[in-house]
Each structure stands twice: as structure tokens, then as C-alpha cells.
Design brief:
The chain is mainly α and 402 residues long. It has helices spanning 38-65, 69-75, 85-114, 133-149, 156-180, 199-203, 233-255, 257-293, 301-332, 340-366, 370-400. The protein folds into three domains: 1-46, no CATH class; 88-109 and 231-400, no CATH class; 133-190. It has eleven helices and no strands. Helix 3 packs parallel to helix 9.
Length: 402
């Protein structure tokens, strides 16, 4: 039998109220002291962690497999076994964006390693067998076309290697044409005097083949900030700082090379830094859309907010699983190509399950016919897509000015 503990004559150390149990009924403070041996503190911490893990195991499976189940449980008052909606959404949001940020770099490197090496063999004797300048120019055009076909704008590291290969080919072609025309080879002491090292000559170089080499204009980005008279001083200072960052990032991207890589990293860091806040702002807007669409259901705004939190928690969990599958596929594919096919089917399954889940969830919670549910689902989805697109556009702008 459970031992009955008497608390007669025991008073709360915080408010002096008579104790009727382990916790004060007046202020809520525990009767137990916090001055405990270390092993007792470790036991309490372990109990807390196991308790949270237990709620995690009770929360995530139904969140992903049972549309609307957690929301209905929350409305019914059965909340102790599950993680609170806002905490659940908050944790999954941070994990999803954190892993996505890492996955972008990992998958980009994976694509770089798998990118096809151009079939142009740059050797010292590429143009040695040609007898006329026209043949040299024709072969150079073919080689440059092969390099251009291997270019991919998103893979700037591969483009840098292709640029180096093109420079070598153009230098060899210029040297061979000089020999065929009876002039001193490019780079010899008797060569034509070099042009002055001006900014224009550095940005745009024209070789002896008569074709202008692909160069990058390093001109300064002409973006200037004019203070707004009606804004306070701190707001103008903030805008001036953002404008300076925008100029620096755009200039870095236009320069290419290491400066471009640094600018892209700054932009990505800024973007992923504001994405969680952006999504938090979208929660009340999504709940407001549900409130307007289901106005005659006479539900409280807080109920729609719980629906919004659980919906976004599911989306973040789906994004998290999709990123994990993509990383797993990138890791396994080089060693076992056959394993990429079931993983690709899993990715497609996740993409199809998300809209079906949200429709099914809306049907179970608001209990309307399928025709009306589908109509309201499409209406809310259309409005939310525009709101989300605008919010993401603002987030991108904030990322560029980081």
C-alpha cells in the first residue's frame, strides 16, 4: 500500500502557507529542497529527458501518419502525452532549416564531384599539326564550344576550371597563329609591346584570334542610399548598412572566384537566419485564413492557430525527412547506384503525401463534405501560396543585404 505522508504543521518556505501536499496550493513551490547531492540531480535530469523522449515517441509517429489526430487530441484535453504544438513546430522548424542549410553545401559538392569532365584534352600539342590560321581558329571554336556545353551556372567551381582550360587553349592558338604568320610567338621578347595595364584591359582581353575572351566586369555596383527624411535616425542607419552589404555582395558575385563564394555564403547565412522568423510570422496569418474560411463554424481563433501549428509541424517534419533521404541518396549512390531508385521513390512519396495529408487533416477537423472541403482547401492554399511567396521574397532580400 502507498504510504500516506502527513503535512500537518509544515509550511511553505516561500509564502508560509500550510502545506497540503508536495506542492504549495498557494504559490506552487515544491516542498523538496534544491540543495541535493549530485547523483540526485543526475537522476532528476535523466527522468526529465526520458519523459520528454517518451512524449516525442508518442508525438512524431501520429503527426506524420495520422492527419488531424494530434489536433483532435489537443481539443479533447488529452495533451499530457504529447509535445505542445508551438514547441513541436519550433523544434522541427529549427532542425529542418539547419539540416537544409548543411545539405545544400553537401549536395552541391556531390554534384561537383559527379559533374562530367569536358572531353577537351588540353595538351601542349593541340594545334601543332595545323597549317593555316583558319584551321587553328576553327579547332579553337570547336574546343571552346565543348567547354561551353559543359558549363552549368550553379556550379561556379566547375566553371572556374573550365575558364582556366579555355585560357590555355586560347594562348596555344595565339602562339600557333603567330608561328604560321611568321611573327614572334606570344610571350617572346620580340613580341608586340604590351598594352598599358588599364582597368579596361584587365576586364576585357582580346587575343590574336580576334575573339574577345570571356571576362568579368569588375566595375563598382552603382547603388547609393539616400536617407529618408521622415524615418528616425536609427532606421536610416540600418538602411544605409543594408545598402552597403547589398553593394558588397553584388560586387563579390560579379567578381567571381573566392569573392563570389564568400558573397554566396553570406547570402545563404542571412537567408537561413531569417527563414525561421519568417515562418513564425506566417502562423497567425494562416490561422486567420482558416478563421475567415470557416467563419460560420464559430470556432475560436486559438483553435485555428493550433491547426496551423500542427500543419506546419508536419510540413517541417516532411522537409526534414526529405533532406535526410537526399543526403542518404548522395552518400549511397556512388557505391550502390541501384539503391538510389527506392530512395527516389521515397522522395516522390513524401512530396505526394504532404498535400494529401493536409486535405485529409482539414476534412477530419472541420467535418464538412468533401466538395466544400476541397474548395476551401484550394482557396486557403492559393491565398497562403501568395502570402508565403511574398514572405520568402522579403527573406531573400534580407539575405542579400546580410
Amino acid at each position: 500500500m502507498k504510504e500516506v505522508v502527513s503535512y500537518d504543521g509544515v509550511h511553505c518556505a516561500n509564502c508560509s502557507a500550510p502545506m497540503q501536499g508536495e506542492y504549495c496550493h498557494h504559490c506552487g513551490q515544491s516542498i523538496h529542497t534544491v540543495l541535493k547531492p549530485v547523483h540526485h540531480m543526475a537522476e532528476d535530469a535523466l527522468e526529465t529527458v526520458l519523459h520528454v523522449d517518451g512524449r516525442l515517441f508518442h508525438t512524431l509517429p501520429p503527426l506524420f501518419t495520422k492527419p488531424g489526430f494530434l489536433t483532435l487530441e489537443y481539443f479533447a484535453g488529452r495533451r499530457q502525452r504529447y509535445i505542445a504544438p508551438f514547441r513541436l513546430m519550433f523544434i522541427l522548424c529549427l532542425l529542418a532549416f539547419f539540416l537544409t542549410h548543411i545539405a545544400i553545401d553537401v549536395l552541391t559538392e556531390h554534384r561537383l564531384t559527379e559533374s562530367v569532365t569536358p572531353s577537351v584534352h588540353v595538351s601542349e600539342h593541340t594545334f601543332d599539326d595545323l597549317q593555316t590560321p583558319a584551321e587553328v581558329k576553327h579547332l579553337l571554336d570547336e574546343k571552346v564550344a565543348e567547354l561551353d556545353s559543359a558549363r552549368e551556372p550553379s556550379l561556379h567551381l566547375a566553371d572556374a576550371k573550365l575558364d582556366d582550360a579555355e585560357k590555355i587553349l586560347r594562348a596555344q592558338a595565339a602562339a600557333r597563329i603567330a608561328v604560321l604568320q611568321g611573327a614572334p610567338a606570344a610571350g617572346s621578347s620580340a613580341a608586340t609591346p604590351a598594352k598599358p595595364a588599364t582597368a579596361d584591359a584587365e576586364d576585357q582581353e582580346t587575343d590574336d584570334t580576334g575573339k574577345r575572351h570571356r571576362g568579368r566586369t569588375h566595375g563598382s555596383t552603382k547603388i547609393h542610399f539616400t536617407p529618408v527624411a521622415w524615418l528616425p535616425e536609427f532606421a536610416n542607419a540600418r538602411l544605409a548598412h543594408a545598402t552597403a552589404n547589398l553593394k558588397a555582395n553584388l560586387a563579390g558575385i560579379s567578381q567571381g572566384g573566392a569573392a563570389k563564394d564568400e558573397a554566396i555564403e553570406r547570402i545563404k547565412a542571412g537567408l537561413f537566419g531569417v527563414l525561421p522568423q519568417t515562418m513564425f510570422l506566417m502562423m497567425p496569418l494562416f490561422a486567420l485564413l482558416l478563421k475567415l474560411v470557416y467563419l460560420f463554424k464559430r470556432r475560436l481563433y486559438m483553435e485555428h492557430l493550433i491547426v496551423a501549428l500542427h500543419s506546419h509541424a508536419f510540413l517541417f517534419l516532411t522537409l526534414l525527412l526529405a533532406v535526410v533521404v537526399a543526403l542518404l541518396k548522395a552518400w549511397i549512390e556512388p557505391h550502390a547506384a541501384w539503391a538510389a531508385y527506392p530512395l527516389r521513390w521515397i522522395e516522390w512519396g513524401l512530396a505526394l503525401w504532404a498535400p494529401v495529408y493536409l486535405l485529409w487533416m482539414q476534412k477530419r477537423i472541420y467535418r464538412q463534405g468533401w466538395a466544400m472541403t476541397i474548395f476551401k482547401y484550394l482557396l486557403v492554399g492559393w491565398c497562403y501560396t501568395w502570402l508565403l511567396g511574398s514572405a520568402l521574397g522579403i527573406a531573400v532580400m534580407l539575405g542579400i543585404t546580410h
